[in-house]
Write a structure and sequence with these properties.
single chain, about 160 residues, alpha+beta, 7-stranded antiparallel beta sheet, 3 helices, about 20% helix
């Protein structure tokens, strides 16, 4: 697998499955920017425990058909509010954020005040070839957790017979 596959997957990424250490992979909304991914998390935003403090994260990206094509360990860099990179990246990220209340400037100010983390996920060196990932052959689906939504209920009462033709 070449870095061209990773570059193409990064350009098209809107959702990345990110895991820190041995933790579970979390589906996080992201914004591609200059060969890296930008992710916001924190109060009022998506839940990504430990991402802001991590130095590396395992990132899984999907292809055009929706299947997993790239697994890469990426460097995690937290952008600090008020820094030059924050003032450049945060407004771009705010414009891509759907269903946010307020203007883009208010959203960026809220992220800074609330302590939200904006992190940049950077892949390994651009020209280094990637090892072909050991992609699983099974679906990777976890066993469903016990919830009241899983309990079978009675079928609804039918007032009229359904005629078969």
């Amino acid at each position: 697998m070449t870095s061209a596959v990773l570059d193409e997957a990064l350009k098209k990424a809107a959702l990345a499955w990110v895991s820190i250490g041995d933790g579970p992979a979390l589906g996080l909304w992201c914004m591609p920017l200059e060969g890296s991914l930008i992710v916001v998390s924190g109060p009022g935003e998506q839940y990504a425990p430990g991402l802001a403090e991590a130095s590396t994260a395992s990132v899984r990206l999907r292809g055009d058909n929706g299947g997993l094509i790239v697994v890469s360990d990426m460097a995690v860099t937290r952008l600090q509010p008020g820094s030059e990179e924050w003032t450049t990246v945060a407004p771009q990220l705010a414009q891509k954020r759907l269903n946010a209340s307020g203007t883009f400037d208010e959203l960026v100010a809220r992220w800074a005040a609330a302590g939200c983390a904006i992190v940049r996920l950077t892949p390994p060196e651009q020209h280094a070839p990637l090892a072909s990932p050991d992609l699983p052959t099974d679906s990777g689906a976890a066993v469903p957790r016990q919830t009241p939504a899983r309990n079978q209920t009675r079928k609804p009462f039918k007032l009229h017979r359904v005629r078969r033709s």
